[in-house]
Amino acid sequence: MQNSLESLVNVLESYRGRDKVIRTLCYGSQLVGGVLSEKPGLSSAQLGKSLLLFSAQLSHCRTVLRLFDDLSMLTYSQSYGLGSREEDSALRWMSVLNNLADQLYYPCEHIAWAADAKIISAKSDKWWLLSGILWGVSLLLGVFRSMRIVMLLQKKLRKSTRGDSSEGTVASRSQLRRQVQGEVLSILSSMADLSNAIHWMPPGFLWAGRFPNWLVGLMGTTSSLIGLIQMGASQAVSA
């Protein structure tokens, strides 16, 4: 119990960890609130409405916190550059375009937020739409990138399988399999988020606007839990 509490505190003390926890609570509240709001009975409906309002406040909190993400994203983009250290050219350019979409996403969202908050005189609709499009493009590129990485890792696995069965090779194959599993989880996470990104597009585009609250919450919770699992796995490896 003490170790679990300490682990949670460690997660909450880091910005990325806290964001993942808030995100999970946000979508989890939307999932439960969406289910309860559709149930008969006044008490269930009221609780569902309260959870949906709580989810909206957490979402707004994350939007405000992302005001400070531009520089960290810019630093990452600069460190990656044009991906000269990347061996695969397709992977390199998908990563570069992914970074570009992510970098442009933040100022668009900031302008939309500032317009809604009446800090600037502008219509927020087009900026929310543009940020949503950039988010969707980033997610789609992320899916393609992870699929490409899985293909490259599987090639390495096949070559390793045809090689010797020494202890080092076995350990290498085990590591490659874990990497494949991680990328598959990334694909599932991005696809769940992409389904929500399409839902928030203007009506008439695929299934835009057709998701009930509980389904938006389910997709977001799935993605958030995968993110927490991946963060825990990366911390376990680095420990």
UniProtKB/TrEMBL annotation:
The keyword 4Fe-4S does not apply. One of its GO terms (biological process) is peroxisome fission. The chain crosses the membrane at residues 127-153. GO terms for cellular component: peroxisomal membrane. The keyword Transmembrane applies. InterPro entries: PEX11 (IPR008733), PEX11C_met (IPR026510). Pfam families: PEX11. Keywords: Membrane, Peroxisome, Transmembrane, Transmembrane helix. This is Peroxisomal membrane protein 11C. The lineage of its organism: Eukaryota, Metazoa, Chordata, Craniata, Vertebrata.
